[in-house]
Fold each of these.
Amino acid sequence: KRDKGLVTVCYTQGGDEISITGDSLILAINPGEWNTLGLELTDIETECVKTLEVNKYPVIMAEVAGLEAKQYYVPKALEKSGYGYISFLASRDGRDTNKGPHLYSVYINTLANTEFKFSSDEDLIEEIKQIKGVTDVTILDKTIWDYNPRLPYKTRLALHKEEEASNTLHLGAYAFRGFELTESIVRQAKMRIAECFGEKVVYDRGIDW
């Protein structure tokens, strides 16, 4: 619940009803989830929910042996005829095992506004094994990721303007000055918090904001 100058958040944990009261609310999830919070939305926030656009990005979490923990592209899958197939693998697994197995995020390119269904685990494993060097694959999980949430520019500006007279911050790729890259989202979030709460932010690169 949001009142002027006051925010109350209520939730259940371990069967107990818990209530927390503070000065401000930070919404760090995209507008597609706001209706699940039991929160009375403003007219502009409601417009954000209605006009939100996302890319549906199929992602596989897998353990892959035979590769170093880095990025791998499948050039054919980046062409239109390759949509629906594995296009990109990425790992930042820091375990000291040169050729794995390493944990990988495996991405599939799809055409916009098309339905997608994952192949069987067996077929996905065989497809990943086509990448040179791969010796073994274990599928851990699969999901359709709501990637790059975005709003019409006028709606972004209106939401940003509304924040000037409210006690709510909206942080994420969809927000004003937001972008799809994680680094950009983190920078935008730190800048907004610094602007609103007067904190000095120093990034890893040593740049003061």
Amino acid sequence: APVDRLAQAARECRERGEPALALQHLEQALASAPLHVDARRQRQDLLRERGRTGLLMREAQDAILARPEDGHAHYLFGRLVPEPVTKLRAFTRAVELAPDSVWPWLGLGHSLLNVDPARSLSIYARLYTATARHPIVSVAFAAALREENQLDHAADLYEELRLDPRVPGVADLGLAQVNLARGDRARAWSAAMGALRARPYDAGLQA
């Protein structure tokens, strides 16, 4: 669908370090499909980076008031709230209302990581299979595995991600973090340099 292509174009702009152009794509997508979840979540990320969290929170709260049975409205609200208990409650409600959607499950998997890591990883594993290893899921799953010190499994996922052109440098960045956790500074440095070559616009890699 055209709106999906616009959302993907926005993601590619973000990966190239072009947030202003990404936001243009997202506004165009949302003009034709105001409830498009991926476009909304990407817009949340971009506006949060610009300090517009207050605006986003008001929008998310208004969406729940207008559509209380919309699981995606609860999901988008959950992405914004800082309190872990409120976040978990929002994602749980989102899953109840939209059990066939990937997005609420992604949110629930993330919010459970510090509460019930086994269930969190189980959710990620199911999503990884169900989405045919979509990079958004793969990146989240690998990060969760890394946090749980399952470094070999995380490294395997990052190696697979190296073959996906939709997320340039992300695999190398993940492998750098894995190798740092292993105490292998040489491999960590090599992977970090690979990430920097693929993502020269990433300020976090230049710090």
Amino acid sequence: RSVQETLNVVSYKLEEVLPSIKAYMQGIDEDFVDLEDKMNHQQFEEAKQACELIDERIDFLSTNIRDLPTYISLASNYIPAEIEKIQNRIVDLKSRDFSLTRIDAESRITKMQEQLEDAYEHIQALDISNVGENLNIITSEINALNDEFETEELAQTEFNEIYEGIFKSTSQLSESFQAAKEELAKLEKRYVLGQDVLSIVDEANQL
């Protein structure tokens, strides 16, 4: 009765697995019928074993009803949404010419999707003994990927800043050198310069 009352309260959160829960409860009802039959036939040892089995099944169902709403929310909503965000981020990074070979993001996403599908199948079957741990593994991998994306973006930003600084300095040097050559050419027209000065220009032109 307690399990049924709890189920009535949270049933709206368990729509995806209600058929499995109802089938499981039907099995418990049948176990009670079997238990009553054993008692009527004074099969007390068998009845005791049947009673223990019923207790185990009720405890199992009670645990499932308590944990299933969280697992369903994670497996059906939160994790798929986070995976989609990662896929969109990959598209964005690739459009900006990021190399994601080191991260191996796409194969890691495929693995997460397979793990999620497996967890969802276990939820549907009410076999959730390892589901919580498996969902935690997936969410940890999601967080790890996001951290690695951040690292890649920061590294690219730093590289771009260094590159732009070098390019700016090189451009300024090139402009200064070009101006010096133009001034030297003007001087050559006005004055006869020594061989040492001309050799400096020649050497500079060879750079």
